[in-house]
Amino acid sequence: MPFNSNWKLLCVRACGRAGVCVRVISVWTFNENQFRIMTTTRVIMSYQWGAANNEKAAMTGLKEEVARVADRELRENKSTREQMLEQFREWIRKNQDICNCRTDDNFLLRFLRVKKFSLPMAQQVLLKYINFRQTFSHLVCNSDYLIPSVTELISNGYIYASPFRDSNGRRVILYNLSKFDPHKHNNSDMTKVHMITYEVLIEDEESQVMGFTHVADIHHASPAHATIWSPTEFSTMVKWGEQSLPMRHKEIHLINVPAAVRYFYDLISALVSDKMRSRLKIHDSVESLRKRVDPKVLPKELGGHMPMAEMIDLWKKEVSAKRESILSLDDMKLLSTKSIITRRNNQQNENSSLMINSLQGSFRRLEVD
């Protein structure tokens, strides 16, 4: 697959810039006029996080700067990590309500990290996650990028991840609502392509720690986009999605929001938590966006360096590499929801353990009635 000269120059400039690291997982050969990818390629640029062979990195398997963030923000260290993983696996093994759950480090750590290594809270997120996938199985299961309607949404750039990390070490998820035709696609297509994107990204442990930035171009949004959902199902999907998906959402930026659909923004704001709401920002221009979001992570169409089409090609390779892993998530089952802490069963279980009672307020906020 040939790359144009813009990409060639971008690579040369980025490699030569002080403080920038380029990680390329591939074998490259080239002639006078083109680069050719000989194997599956994933290119992620970020500011240099330091050598990965120091003591902290060796203990956690994370790069130096990422390990420092994990220690500082998530209370993650070698002892805590090993202890919590062992206890988490034992809890899953003994929990008769959970079937076919993944217990590898990568999978369990995403839940521990999103709850800063509070094991009871991580357990609750796992239960909610499986319940979310099961409750909305008609929308979530068989999230296969090879389904033609899903392939189309990925290929046309409705949602994809930038191949570059920003200056905070985060992957940036890009959305373009004009690429979703509500007269052609349905809520199942929308849910599947979102789930594929998020599941692929949280497989990466560095992203589990550093979190994500979202940038959404809402140009051409219309009331028709809302008609693919019933009000109840949309409300539940948004609330449960925030509670259940083990992702650290650090920033959410919206651009080109038509005045006619500002009500949609108000609706979303009302459904999400206060913390999530505080991270939402509407921009009235690309210039405003570029002041808050590292320009190098944006597509050329929004003032970045790499054209959107090239970003999407790289993203499709990432998605393809994780296809079997994503599809295998459908095997997990929750036989009963009795262990999920809610407002209702909190009040019915006043004799719960002291630790669980101390966490009651946090879980109450996560309930969807």
From TrEMBL:
GO terms for MF: phosphatidylinositol bisphosphate binding
PROSITE patterns recorded: CRAL_TRIO
Segments forming domain CRAL-TRIO: 147-310
GO CC annotations on file: membrane
InterPro entries from the UniProt entry: CRAL-TRIO_dom, CRAL-TRIO_dom_sf, CRAL/TRIO_N_dom, CRAL/TRIO_N_dom_sf
Name of this chain's protein: CRAL-TRIO domain-containing protein
Organism: Coptotermes formosanus
